[in-house]
Automatic annotation (TrEMBL):
Keywords: Cell inner membrane, Cell membrane, Membrane, Transmembrane, Transmembrane helix, Transport. The keyword Disulfide bond does not apply. One of its GO terms (cellular component) is plasma membrane. This is Secretion system protein. The chain crosses the membrane at residues 169-190, 210-238, 376-400. Gene3D superfamilies: Type II secretion system (T2SS), domain F (1.20.81.30). Pfam families: T2SSF (PF00482). Belongs to the GSP F family. It comes from Ruminiclostridium papyrosolvens C7.
Length: 405
């Protein structure tokens, strides 16, 4: 008997973890399900050594998994055996974490384990989506096609993230430049200018005194130390709060309610939900199990709580569209298209088209949001710089008035 660590979700959507004793990973999964949990990851407890080994290496990116699946599929298509593919991949893979994982898979498969069983032991490297689909591919004899679908899925996920990151880059750069410029003016230029005016004499105008007060704060070591401590404490507190179930739910709910941002997040979740579910169903995964996997992939507490009710409704004989519509999370187009797909018997292909549509919608929406942010940032920058310039000019006028009198 071996000791297995599990991460699972309860019926209320809470994340739990623990240990079970079992002869193999399949029995461990069965034990977790017997406790009324939905297992998200189950792997053998091999001690702290292996955990540390994977933590010190680089994180495995979705792009790396996409390349891995594409190479694996190409070699299988060329007639190379699974063990032969693993042997080649462990020597060709650039990412050190993924390379170590491929070596572990090679050793385990050589000892008689299936590929999916070995991948379950490396749940920190291979996502639940990938493990579940590989398991179905091995059972159905369609591993080659499954790996191709996974590579397409990961490629599209990477493209969406890349487009969003690229779109947000320009406003972020403008914001950083503005912050540096304003800080430089307040800390270095304003104090010298004001001291020059003070040497002539006279009372400083209110705007100048405000800027001088802010400048004094930024040059005060005690204030800077206190400010840094407040920032560190705020970040630590936020991360602690976010790690709780209530914190995750509160933050996800808040994001949904934010103007413009909430709509885009809803579209991103709709795209991720439909594409992942489509990929799983095309690979032969049952609907209930597919929804459990999707729950972990979407990683949103509002969706997780809603999917628990959806799964219960399906187990009682309902279709997918009706309980999804009751959730009220995804746009109506998603549930309507799912209803059409269920009636036509083409749910997987319909959801793939819906995912493509929302990928384009996300790109368009983010571009519009960035287009709105650019002039807004410039306007804010102009107001701040203008206030500083006015605060510097007013003492000059006061000085000339004093000379005139």
């Amino acid at each position: 008997m071996a000791n297995y660590i599990y991460n699972a979700k309860t019926k209320s959507g809470e994340t739990v973890s623990g240990n079970v004793e079992a002869s193999d990973v399949n029995m461990a999964i069965a034990f977790v399900k017997d406790r009324g949990y939905f297992p998200m990851a189950v792997y053998e407890n091999t001690g702290p050594g292996k955990e540390i080994e994977f933590k010190v290496h680089k994180k495995v990116k979705v792009k790396d998994l996409s390349i891995l699946c594409r190479q694996f599929h190409t070699m299988l298509n060329a007639g190379v055996s699974v063990i032969g593919c693993l042997d080649l991949l462990r020597s060709q893979t650039q990412n050190p974490t993924l390379r170590d994982a491929m070596s572990q898979l090679y050793d385990d498969v050589q000892k008689g384990k299936t590929l999916s069983e070995s991948m379950k032991l490396l749940s920190k490297v291979f996502p639940v989506l990938m493990v579940s689909m590989v398991e179905v591919g091995e059972v159905s004899g369609t591993l080659e096609q499954v790996l191709e679908r996974l590579s397409v899925q990961f490629e599209k996920d990477t493209k969406v993230k890349s487009k969003v990151s690229t779109a947000m880059m320009y406003p972020a750069v403008i914001g950083c430049i503005a912050l540096v410029m304003v800080t430089f003016m307040i800390v270095f230029i304003v104090p010298k200018f004001v001291s020059m005016v003070n040497s002539v004499g006279g009372t400083l105008p209110m705007p100048t005194r405000i800027i001088l007060f802010i400048s004094g704060l930024f040059t005060n070591p005690l204030f800077l130390l206190g400010f840094a401590l407040v920032i560190v404490a705020a970040v630590w507190g936020f991360r602690r709060f976010k790690s709780t179930e209530y914190g995750k739910f509160f933050i996800d709910s808040l994001i949904f309610k934010m103007p413009m941002v909430g709509v885009n997040v809803q579209k991103i979740l709709a795209s991720r939900f439909t594409r992942t579910l489509s990929t799983l169903l095309k690979s032969g995964v049952s609907l209930i199990h597919a929804l459990e996997v999707v729950d972990g992939v979407v990683n949103n507490q509002i969706v997780s709580r809603g999917l628990l009710k959806v799964k219960e409704s399906i187990k009682m004989g309902s279709n997918l569209a009706a309980p999804l519509e009751k959730m009220g999370i995804f746009p109506l187009m998603v549930t309507h298209m799912i209803s059409v797909g269920e009636e036509a018997g083409s749910l997987d292909s319909i959801m793939e088209k819906v995912a493509d549509f929302y990928d384009e919608e996300v790109e368009t929406s983010v571009s519009k949001l960035v287009a709105m942010m650019e002039p807004l940032l410039m306007m804010v920058l102009a107001i701040i710089v203008g206030f500083i310039v006015v605060a510097m000019i007013l003492p000059i006028f006061s000085m000339y008035q004093g000379v005139g009198q």
